[in-house]
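Exercise 7. Given the components listed, write out the predicted structure of the assembled complex. Treat all entries as one system.
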Amino acid sequence: MGSGNHVAVARALMAWFRRSARRMDWRETDDPYRIWVSEIMLQQTRVSTVTPYYRRFLAAFPDVEALARASLGAVLKRWEGLGYYSRARNLHKAAGILRERHACLIPSSVDALMALPGVGRSTAGAIAAIAFRQDVPILDANVKRVVARLHAVREDVRRASVERTLWEHSRRTILPGKGRETALAMMDLGSSVCTPRAPDCPACPLAKWCEARPLGIQESIPRRPAKKTLPHRDRAVAVIRNRQGKILVRRRSESGLLGGLWELPGSGKTAGETLTGALARELREGFGIDVEVDETFAALRHGYSHFRVTLHAYRCRKTKGKVRSSREWKWATPAELEDLAMPRADRKILEQVKINLHEKGISK
DNA sequence: AAGTCGGGGTC
DNA sequence: GACCCAGACTT
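Answer.
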């Protein structure tokens, strides 16, 4: 594409955007805090998924001060089910930094934004462009796809050298003085017209400049990496009730998978072990209690980003010992369990527990 | 550069 | 089932 066409492309994009802009809660505000929250929630997450979470989160934490003051547990509870929980941890941590060092103000420069935990170049660009109306580029999945097709980039778009090229292409789409509108327009175009599969090229305002379209290769850009089959694990989890009918739960480490969430105690099996044997061992080593592993009442398949797991839920009875562990744990009533942030899979297991209790006519 | 990190909508 | 999503961070 000739360099002289960039302004024409940008103008065509703007004209299309004025007719086709999508409406979203976070587009109705100029509050940088709200836009920041939305950008974090939207990382690797669809608009339709985010919307209800965004509303509940902002109702609970309406500004930086409220978020910084809240406990991590309260923040994670509002994030429960949204996934990628490091986003919530980083958001909470960043709020603390903003309160201590920035008088609760969101910085406006890309570099200062990138210094916040959980804010990379793309998110920093989006906040600077949308909240502060700067002429800076973004490169989310939508924009990456649009510019890769526009310039017929056949290489793997994850390669660093290719990514630098795409950033430059994104920068050239900015209509001077219209950084905010350009960013929103490119995202909308990628979301509603230049879609991963079956793009609606006849409706595309950039069709006459698109290099992929005349070659018929638009659907194979960006090039997908070869699919790899995800490993599968089996895991046993225990439902242990004490004499008050409370259930034993423990809190996961704040780093790593599902960090900071509460879960049913459980274990994977190592070589030469049975699943129930591994569960008994984990409870002995991790909590200092002996249990009798009773019947299994649920098996749940669940997929994570890089592996799959089948959770086998066992009812267990404590036969000896008092719970003692270095990890954080508690006996929780059903009502208390509702207030803890838990992984989706564990939540489903507990739903089964409730149903079973109901069927057996046991109250509370 | 490659791996880690969720969950659900959608085809 | 596989693919995809307003990516960041660690190793």
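Discussion: The first strand of chain A starts at residue 232 and ends at 240. DSSP finds 14 helices and seven strands in chain A.
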